[in-house]
Design goal:
The chain is α/β, with parallel strands linked by helices. It is built from 7 helices and 6 strands; from the N terminus they run βαβαβαααβαββα. A 6-stranded mixed β-sheet has the order 3-2-4-1-5-6, with helices on both faces. Strand 5 and strand 6 form a beta hairpin.
């Protein structure tokens, strides 16, 4: 059986623009994202990874590099099928404006029938990402493999292996820097874990603790 870690990239500042990123170049991890990626790398440091794949965009490559730092024998590989959705004319547009279009409702409620103008269909995206995962499982039997890519693709893949209809895939939560674990063998697939963010939560706990300590130190100085 092949164990496949489906990993979403860490956070970036592009979301603050309110635009749909897609394949927009130069979208890098921000400071919070770099800290999340480092925590992710530490979390996976002792995992016996045999291969490391990533979507070619900056935010995914930077997240993958944080993992590779603990596995210097690996190179970051690309794979047709795990790249971000091709949003066509929607790429880079303001999401609030897109939400006013009729197609937005189709994307949200009936994604299996959605086609982005001059872009992909949502169904087509699910087919290609599942195909890529199946190829990886075939190429790496009895190995552990990590794939760093994008939220919607991870959710579509999980929906497929859970036997969910694509129209329900948005019910699945995939957070930044999260790990979802899939096992594929000769029989049924197994989802071992979904949206594991224990390392990110620990990072946030440490941040809160540091803030409390700083406040206490400030109070003591004022006394």
């Amino acid at each position: 059986m092949t164990q496949i870690l489906l990993i979403r990239h860490a956070v970036n500042d592009f979301v603050k623009t309110g635009k749909l990123a897609g394949w927009t170049p130069e979208v890098h991890l921000n400071d919070e994202g770099k800290a999340q990626a480092e925590a992710l790398g530490n979390r996976l440091a002792q995992v016996p990874l045999k291969r490391l794949y990533a979507s070619p965009l900056e935010r995914t490559m930077e997240t993958a590099e944080a993992i590779r730092q603990h596995h210097p024998h690996l190179e970051i590989l690309h794979k047709d099928g795990i790249g971000e959705v091709q949003y066509g004319d929607w790429e880079g547009k303001v999401i609030a404006d897109l939400a006013k279009r009729k197609m937005w409702g189709v994307v949200q409620e009936y994604p299996s029938r959605a086609r982005f103008p001059n872009g992909e269909t949502m169904y087509g995206v699910q087919v290609r990402v599942v195909g890529a995962i199946e190829e990886i499982a075939h190429e790496h039997p009895r190995e552990t493999v990590a794939i760093v890519f994008h939220a919607d693709l991870i959710k579509m893949a999980l929906a497929h292996y859970l036997g969910m209809h694509l129209d329900n895939f948005q019910r699945i939560v995939v957070s930044p820097a999260s790990i979802s674990t899939l096992i594929l063998g000769h029989s049924r697939p197994f989802i071992v874990g979904m949206n594991d963010i224990a390392h990110v939560m620990e990072l946030e706990r440490q941040k809160r603790q540091q803030e409390q300590q700083e406040k206490q130190a400030e109070k003591q100085e004022q006394q």
